[in-house]
Amino acid sequence: MADVHTPEQRSFNMSRVKSKDTKPELMVRKFLHAHGFRYKLHDNTLPGKPDIVLPKYKTVIFVHGCFYHGHEGCRYFVVPKTRTEWWLNKINGNRLRDAANNARISEANWRIVTVFECELKPKSRQLTLQNLLGLLKPIST
């Protein structure tokens, strides 16, 4: 099936997709800040440039979009009907890169928390954020 947009329209649409400061990411950041947590953003010294880095807790938080990271079993992850093969390669590449980055971060003894955008929808937001608080405990040295 051919793309329904011209190359110029598709390029414009894709240029509007943000990778930083997305609504789900801002939601998690505001929640953490309101609960007294201080963090670094997009630390490029760690593999994958985690969205939120809590050095005191030796924890990184990735806030993933369900579509671009291929969230299995999620209603927001639907394989497009146009350019299906290209999108599957892209999404599977993202999954492989996420797994490799997580392995490297774990080897450095950091905790990894991944929050998907569907977990921040109104019905499950409070539970997700409260569970996140439970995971953030200082590492004893």
From TrEMBL:
Sorted UniProt keywords: DNA damage, DNA repair, Endonuclease, Hydrolase, Nuclease, Plasmid
Pfam families in UniProt: Vsr
UniProt-annotated stretches for the region Disordered: 1-21
GO terms under biological process: mismatch repair
Entry EC no(s): 3.1.-.-
Source organism, top-level taxon: Bacteria
MF annotations from Gene Ontology: endonuclease activity; hydrolase activity
Family assignment from sequence similarity: Belongs to the vsr family.
Primary role: May nick specific sequences that contain T:G mispairs resulting from m5C-deamination.
Name used for this protein in its record: Very short patch repair endonuclease
